[in-house]
Amino acid sequence: MTQLIIFYDGGCPLCVKEMRHLKKLDERNHIQFENINEADFAERFPHVNVDDANAYLHGQLADGRMIYGLDVTHAAWREVGKGWLIAPLRWPGIRWLADKVYLGFARHRNRISRLLTGQSRCSQCRID
Fold it and tell me: Which residues of the chain have pLDDT under 50?
């Protein structure tokens, strides 16, 4: 049963690498991965603004609530039994700074990806 839907940028090599890793760890298949660049994405998920989802990570919990940014990351890692690794980023005091750093990362993820992988974008990387 899906506990979390992650709406990710399938053209970002770093994003895809993270989704591949999470998918591998998701032995119970509780996470559904949705590429915001798929041709039918807006049709299937009309409640998700693609421009906003491209600016920062979006997720949807099983009860329909939307979550964003590092809250999505924490929920995903919690689903695969490793939430403790990310939990400090959600603690009061650290949360504010972590969210600001995340937004900077999200804004510059293509440049960061180029530095780390040699590729800033891919024409639809696959997670499977």
Answer: none
Rg of the Cα atoms in the chain: 14
HEC secondary structure over 81-110:
CCHHHHHHHHCCCHHHHHHHHHHHHHHCHH
| pLDDT given at position 127 | 73
Give the number of other CB atoms < 10 A from CB of residue 82.
13
Which pTM was predicted?
A: 0.91
What angle is formed at CA 18 by the lines to CA 120 and CA 37, rounded to 5 degrees? Answer: 60
Model confidence pLDDT, tens digit, residues 67-89: 999 999 999 999 999 999 999 99
Contacts from 44-47 at CB under 8 Å and sequence distance 24+?
A: 45/7
Distances (CA, A) of 98 to 10, 15, 47, 84: 24, 18, 27, 15
Residue 57 near residue 7, CB atoms below 8 Å: yes
